[in-house]
Amino acid sequence: MDAANQIFPYAPLNTSKAQIRLIYLQPRLLVADEITCELCIADLDDTNLFYEALSYEWGSPWDLALSIELDGQSVPVRKNLWWALWHLSGDGVGRLLWVDALCIDQGNDRERNHQVGQMGRVYSSATRVVAWIGREDPLKEAEKAINFVKLLYGTSEETRYCNIQFEWVSGYSTKDGRHLIETTNVANRNKLAEDEKEVVKAGNHPGWKSLIHFCRRPYSSRLWIIQELVLARNIIIQCGKFNVSWDAVEHVFGQVPSTTPWDQYNDDAHLHGDRHFWTFVLWGSVPYKIFMQRQDCVKGLQSHALLENYCLYREAGCADTRDKLFGLIGLSSRCCQDAVKVDY
Questions:
Q1: Least packed by Cβ within 10 Å: which of 115, 153, 223, 338?
Q2: Which contacts qualify for 287-290: CB closer than 8 Å, 24 or more apart?
């Protein structure tokens, strides 16, 4: 349990309704400004509710070295969450966010059961899910991967990977819940250029190696992110100050062959940058599995049974073994959701 939940007095939620808490993350105007948030209560049944949901890795429970201001109180949070909020508040625009560590009273089992039980709906209802995969790495592999993805997706500022801006609707107080309007400048995708096709074919392009590192970051090992991303309507991937849309990542994954002849693969392929080697590695990554499951949703295919999801993501990690089921129930078939009730 986070220290925030041990010391912070939460206003109770009505668990007979689809209520959730949201935080209004105030913009930082200066680098030295403190991270400041205010809580409000919202209802998922409100058709005028617009918010973003944060998907991130919690990190070590002993990693509580930094604090934020929450409703006027200093509250300690884990470093990874602190850095996520620091970057997200630095663009000069306030944001209405759902963050599990701050929006759920983890010390209240009844509330926790209620909130985890509707977690799938929280992420599927969000205007956008921000997938915080952590800070930049020293070798800048994440930055290289993002640039590579954008290269394959298209470099025009009018393509879908352009940043999505959110504007606050005037007339709402923070306590009443601020509403978001999504404004985008989206143009039709340009046709694949010939040089892009060559990049795809060339398995020795360094971007493929960076993409593998990108897919193997600790964030991808967390079980909870699977449900959060599979069910999301819109996703932006944030790594430090860099970001890229999930649409762009899906475009690149779509260039990966769905089948690779075994006679064209050998154990020394990785030494020569063979594209078949990168194909096999990507197939086994969690982001690629999420991509495939999202494609099934788009096609209207029936949801997997809970056991199928459990086997598919059996290597994903979580601190509580019960979450091996609770963390996947939201994207499982309806009969499984009805049969398994969240109870901590």
A1: 338
A2: 287/214, 287/215, 287/220, 287/249, 287/253, 288/215, 288/253, 288/256, 289/226, 289/313, 290/226, 290/229, 290/230
Single out the residue of 23, 341, 287, 51 nearest to residue 179, CA to CA. 51
pLDDT at residue 274 is higher than 80: no
Residue 32, token pair as written in the block:
């030295």
Task: Dig out the tokens for 127 from the structure.
Answer: 């205007």
Give, as one character, the DSSP assignment of residue 221. G
| 3-state DSSP assignment of residue 266 | coil
All residues at 6 or more sequence positions from 198 whose CB lies less than 8 Å from its CB, including other chains: none
Q: Is 109 exposed, middle or buried (0-12, 13-18, 19+ CB in 10 A)?
A: exposed
β partners of residue 258:
none
pLDDT, tens only, 96-131: 999 999 999 988 989 999 999 899 999 999 999 999
Instruction: Please name the residue that has the structure tokens 């009805």.
Output: 338
Sequence-distant (≥ 6) Cβ neighbours of residue 188 within 8 angstroms: none
Alpha carbon separation from 330 to 4, 232, 297, 299 (Å, rounded): 26, 12, 13, 18
CA nearest 308: which of 323, 329, 287? 329
Q: Give the alpha-carbon dihedral of 314, 219, 259, 273, to 10 degrees.
A: -130
User: In this structure, what token pair is assigned to residue 46?
Assistant: 């409100």
Distance CA 110, CA 176 (A): 25
